[in-house]
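In keeping with the milestone schedule agreed at the kick-off meeting, the structural modelling team has produced records for the first pair of proteins. Each record is given below as a sequence line and a structure-token line. The laboratory manager (R.T.) confirmed that both were archived under the project's standard naming scheme.
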Amino acid sequence: MKWQIVKQNAAGKDVWQYDGTLVARIGEAVLIDARFDRDDFVFNGMPICRGDRFIEAYYADRWFNIMEIYEGGTETLKGWYCNVTYPANIQEGIVTYKDLALDVMIFADQRCLLLDEDEFEALGLPAKIKEKARKIPNELLLLFQKNNYQSIKRWFDQA
């Protein structure tokens, strides 16, 4: 079944939309299979190419989403991109999430980067929201360690 993914900025303005296919729905979470539909570029050392496969986990009760990135139509894992977000709004056929700019990038070899701290600080979020969001990168890293950096298809329902 086709689903639409809508990324919004922290203020709720749509910034990107694309389609994916529902893989699974468990409780407050959905797993979506999508293809990257923009021009090729290199992001912090990871090439992202048109047609790369993204397996994406969205949660209505968690402050993040996870995108597992595979090279084209292969099973060659490039890594994971994790957005710190408000909990996703999951309706039938559509996922909308508000991005809080702070991101965690984990390469297939388990190297990781914390990204966009300056953009996060510039958002001017309320103190409680900032405090909650600042804890998410560590939660994500612990989640990946707990699951031995396996595919999120195997553990997304445990997050």
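The second protein of the pair:
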Amino acid sequence: MSRLSPADAAAARDVVIAYANALDARDWAGFEALFEPMVEIDYRSLGTTHGVFSARDWAERCRVLGAFAATHHKVTNFTVAREGADGAVVGAYVDAAHFIEAEGRRLDAYVLGIYRHRLTRRDEGWRIAGCALTVSGYPGGRERFDAAFAAARAAFGGSEPRS
């Protein structure tokens, strides 16, 4: 893979930052607007979703994060490379924190990993065509992480994927 221009690389990084910010702000319309009409999601390393979804369906599934009192998705250590004529791959470390009260106790759920976003260049800018998460670890433990997401899904009323 060859390099992008500094301006294109910065714009591609900005899309991944916008992904994290939209999740934390619960900006579902803004989140949906970041994607191609159809997007491949691979969260198998969390034990959840892998498949192709419409941008709207993926945004709807991520609304479970709204059941948390707060979330914080920090993305750092970016790598950006060209993929084909009109594509890019953006890698980034993600440090995601999720906070919820359930059954009278606070559950903090943390996951560390690596995002890999596949982007496509459009006239209006970069759009996400694929997103994969590879988990590196669960500070606080996997059991606590799973308990927090179970509480969020119960509060939300569904079985949406974790992020």
